[in-house]
Amino acid sequence: MESVIERIERGQFWQFHGGIHPPEMKFLTNEKPIRSLPLPEKLVIPVQQHIGEPGDLLVAVGDTVLKGQALTKASAPLMVPVHAPTSGKITNINLHVIAHPSGLSELCVTLVPDGEDKWRDRHITKNFHELSKDTLIEKIADAGISGMGGAGFPTHVKVNTQAQINYLIINAAECEPYITADDLLVRENAGTILDGINILDKILEPAFILIGIEDNKPLAIEALRRQTQDIDKIKVCVLPTQYPMGGEKQLIQALTGQEVASGVLPSALGIVMQNIATCFAIAEAVISDTPLIKRVITVSGQALSKPQNVWALLGTPVSFLLKQCGYPEQAKKHIIMGGPMMGFSLASDEIPVVKTTNCLLAPSEKEIPDDNIEVECIRCGQCADACPAQLLPQELQWSAKAQDYDQLNKLNLFDCIECGACAYVCPSHIPLVHYYRVAKAEIREQKLLDIKAEKAKQRFEARKARLERDKRIREEKHKKAAEARKARMNSGTKEANKEKSAVAAALARVQAKKQQSASNNEQSETSDNEKSPVAAAIARAKAKKAAKQNTTEQAPNAGENKSSRVAAAVAKAKAKKMQNSTNSTDIKTSDSIRPENKQTEETTEQPTSSTQPENDKKARIAAAVAKAKAKKAQTSAHTKGDEPEGHSKDNTQKTESVDTTEQSSTSNQAENDKKTRIAAAVAKAKAKKAQNNTHASKVDALDSNSKDNTQKSESVDTTEQTSVSAETDNDKKARIAAAVAKAKAKKQQKNSKAK
Questions:
Q1: How far is Cα 385 from Cα 216, in angstroms, rounded to an integer?
Q2: pLDDT tens for residues 140-163?
Q3: Residue 227 and residue 59: Cα distance in Å, rounded?
Q4: Mean per-residue pLDDT for 326-345?
């Protein structure tokens, strides 16, 4: 231990692995004092601003709150309350986008200030040395203080340790480029910070207190030395500027030479570290009874006209701070919360600042160009050389892209402090830290699911064990009851004999019912066996009767089909004959035309007009005759159908002869059908031939008449038109009559088959 202090007093420190030296860019804000801002129009206060669980709400929409009033309360060790930064009215409690790399939304309380900035009642502590450790820890917890260096771990949990603490390290390194919030805070409030360090000294009782600060903050170093020059156990350690000197493990190694192994807390080595801004908040909470409602934030970047450090109320929208520092109105906004190395881009400028926000960066395109295109890794190894945690960044990135979580755990992914040194030196412009953050979030989510599954399994196994236990208890209870009943029945007393006889009677009744049911089953089986031959005989008789009826019905159907087809053929032949006679009449009429005088024209018109009604009459007569014959054939078919049915009833033994008759009639029917179709085709061909000859003769007669008598052409044309129209009408009516007769014959045939 003495060697460590001696090295510190000589200004000799240890080196950690890796590290880089990016441009500091602190000159933009380190020459200006911290500025207090007016109240914004609204404050959006996230319920959870720390590592752990959110607190329980104490307010509702419409409530009026005072400055410093608690909005939530802690009901678990890792809960930290939040407070109203000013007095006003609660207008909304809903989900709102918060400061997170994924841009997720969480429950937030919206407070509209009333402008009065009225405090709640506060209790000032004049001498904190008179307070006990538990009281001091309680005050820190009630003030809602969590780590303000970036991690956000609840401070009251971190300082409430039972381990023996050798070194209390105060982190004032502030190694991130652009950020000067801690530098200005130390310059302007070194006395209050020292009070916070003394409060931690009373709680932890360390052997030494080491304040680590980089050598690029000379004014802050001078202020700390001036405040601590009379305290021997406090050592101001001025470290060389190197990024990331402000990392917990890196600063511990640089000051003490001890390496914190993976998965080991610094308290196991006798070391506790607190941020310099956290010390200021502890002093305000214990002495002034002021909860954590504001903090110093560096608003920097070359896109701003007035970059500076400001006192910002927690919940202030980022847009309000940018406007106060001269951010120009432009469509494309690239805002980073945190420094350029460990910060993340914001999805919206309406995101509120929280307890861990130490910087807002508004860079120009020259400072941080956003057009770098990611390319494949060339395996140069520069990322591994720069990694202060001695990890293998390229292998971590490959496993993260492949979602190989087991391999990521083997590679100690959670030892990564997300400093961004690997991405800074990568020539392929691979955003390595983004891959690590996504992988960490997925692993945490999977762990939560595994925990839920394990709890569900435990509940299921507990229920199963309970059911088995209840079943075993019931069985034992029934067994004991049976044994007691048996012993009671065998005791020989009057009650036992009575109970035994009742049991015997019950058994006898059960046996009797069983025998009765068995006898009933036997009787039903016997009756079924007796009825089965009778039912079979009846079924066979019905089948024979149905077969005989079908056989007798087929014979008359054959006769009916034959007579129907004959009637149809006769009707069709007569219709065609009538058509031929009509055509011959037209030919005679056209031959008798002589265009020599008007008398000839009149004579021609009279036969033509008289022929048309005569032909119509003949066609109707032919159709009526065909219809009458079809009806007669139908009547005869019905009569024949009745006679065989009666005959079959009287002579059931002649089934074979009926089948033979049916076969012969079927063959005759097929032969007659064929002859009828042939005759119909021949008649149709002759009719077409006669019709063609008629048209040819008409054309010759008309041509000769027109050559001899050109002066009377009009009368000849009139006569020709009259004769042609008469012929067309007669042909049409004859065909209609034939079609009607044929359709009726087919209908009669179908009805006969159906019967």
A1: 24
A2: 999 999 999 877 899 999 999 888
A3: 42
A4: 86
- Domains annotated on the chain, with CATH: 2-360 (3.40.50.11540), 372-517 (1.10.1060), 555-649+664-754 (no CATH)
Residues 6 or more apart whose Cβ sits within 8 Å of residue 754: none
Q: How many CB atoms lie within 10 A of CB 593?
A: 22
Q: At 57, is the secondary structure helix, strand, or coil?
A: strand
Residue 605: CB atoms within 10 A of its CB come to 17
Tens digits of per-residue pLDDT, 376-400?
999 999 999 999 999 999 999 999 9
CB 359 within 8 A of CB 339: yes
Say how far apart CA 435 and CA 705 lie, in whole Å: 111
Find the distance separating the first CA and the last CA of the chain, reported in whole Å. Answer: 124
Edge-first strand order for the sheet with 167-171 is 234-239, 208-214, 167-171, 271-275
Nearest Cα residue to 552 out of 638, 643, 633, 635: 643
Amino acid making up residue 723 = S
92 phi, psi to nearest 5 deg: -160, 150
User: Which residue's structure tokens are 């080595």?
Assistant: 269
Other CB atoms within 10 A of residue 464 CB: 10
CA 292 – CA 278 distance, rounded (Å): 10
| 681: CB partners within 8 A, 6+ apart | none
Q: How far is CA 751 from the centre of its chain?
A: 65
Closest CA to 383 of 420, 345, 328, 438: 420
What single DSSP character describes residue 353?
Answer: P
Q: How many CB atoms sit inside 10 A of residue 621's CB? A: 13
The percentage of residues in the chain with a pLDDT greater than 90, rounded to a whole number, is 52
Positive or negative CA dihedral for 319, 325, 328, 333? negative
pLDDT tens digits along 383-442:
999 999 999 999 999 999 999 999 999 999 999 999 999 999 999 999 999 999 999 989
Contact 221, 255 (CB under 8 A): no
Q: What is the pLDDT of residues 459-470, one digit of tens each?
A: 999 999 999 999
Candidates 403, 341, 401; CA nearest to 376 is 401
Can you tell me which residue has the tokens 């009526």? 624
